Amino acid sequence: MEAMTKDLWVFVETNEDGTAKNVGIELLTPGKLLAEKQGGSLVAVILGENVEKAVNMAGRHGADKIIAAEAPELRAYSTDAYTEAICKLVKKYGPTSMMIGATNNGRDLGPRVSCRLQTGLVADCTALDIDEESGNVAWTRPAFGGNLMATILCPDHRPQIGTVRPGVFKKREPVENRAEIIREEIHIDPKDIRTRILDLITYMNSENVDLEGAEIIVSGGRGVGGPEGFGPVKALADALGGTVGASRAAVDAGWISHAHQVGQTGKTVGPKLYIACGISGAIQHLAGMSGSDCVIAINKDPDAPIFDVANYGVVGDLFEVLPALTEELRKD
Ligand code: FAD
């Protein structure tokens, strides 16, 4: 399919309360740069039933245009309805590329849309650029089990579609909403939707770890020495109102679940504060947390590479440093 415009689309997924999911807003940041390089507009595409809050958020975070498509069938995510809606819009407007956040729904939607449109999909990207020579989007993603980073171009397919990990990009500072808003009424035949949402139940358990959205993360590595070593890590995280992260070494040892893993084969995070405790700073760990605003490293080895990326470093035993820090914080 030929692209009719040079526009770059970001699919902005909505939450149940009609707000935009973080990743959709984050993607507007690289989207703006890439759209400018491509000579097109940055378009946020929002589907749902009541999407005003998400429209406003997208407008305030840099979208030039917003396509807001509302229909009762789009109230909650379903593969059939969302695929149908996106494909109809793509055929009508002809974007050159489209980014989708790699949430559970985004990972479902991207492949279905790309298959329906007979184009390609680059899944789970962690970096984006424009290839100067060809003008195509250069999608970078971990490959071969995370052992190398592959940059992929899709020269023959339009739109070029990719899913992008949450937490990789930072949201822009909000500005006045000047976006052109295009309202679309999408007709979706209820008969075409093969699944029906009967009820939405929010299920929270210990595995529901929102590292990507966390503003403060306290992570433990092999240096914590065992599952009980996460006690002081968690105590500090609680005192700061933060979330517990971990290195792969700690996860592989079975001390904490994979839901907490930060890094190339874990989650990509971008908190305001990242405290690395007993983590050496391997390149694969740094790949997941180097977008943090401020990094504090606590390690007893003064030569640990984590100190190269840390804003503040404490050379010492985490079992002494963490309880002392937690106690100080609890005094306030
Ligand atoms: P180590 O490297 O063993 O470091 C432990 C640190 O703790 C040391 O620096 C030591 O000085 C310090 N220490 C020990 N005791 C104390 C103490 N009492 N007080 C203070 N400091 C102490 N790793 C990830 O983290 N995330 C990933 O997603 C990831 N993906 C990978 C993908 C691939 C394909 C490969 C090959 C590797 C991947 N890794 C990943 C693994 C990575 O290469 C490292 O092995 C891992 O990050 C090391 O974890 P660590 O820093 O906790 O352990």
From TrEMBL:
- Indicate yes or no for the key word Signal: no
- InterPro entries according to UniProt: DHS-like_NAD/FAD-binding_dom (IPR029035), ETF_a/b_N (IPR014730), ETF_a/FixB (IPR001308), ETF_alpha_N (IPR033947), ETF_asu_C (IPR014731), ETF_asu_C_CS (IPR018206), Rossmann-like_a/b/a_fold (IPR014729)
Q: Which UniProt keywords apply?
A: Electron transport, FAD, Flavoprotein, Transport
Q: Give one Pfam family.
A: ETF_alpha
State whether keyword Protein transport applies: no
> What sequence ranges are listed for the domain Electron transfer flavoprotein alpha/beta-subunit N-terminal?
8-197
Q: Which family does it belong to?
A: Belongs to the ETF alpha-subunit/FixB family.
What protein name does the entry list? Electron transfer flavoprotein subunit alpha/FixB family protein
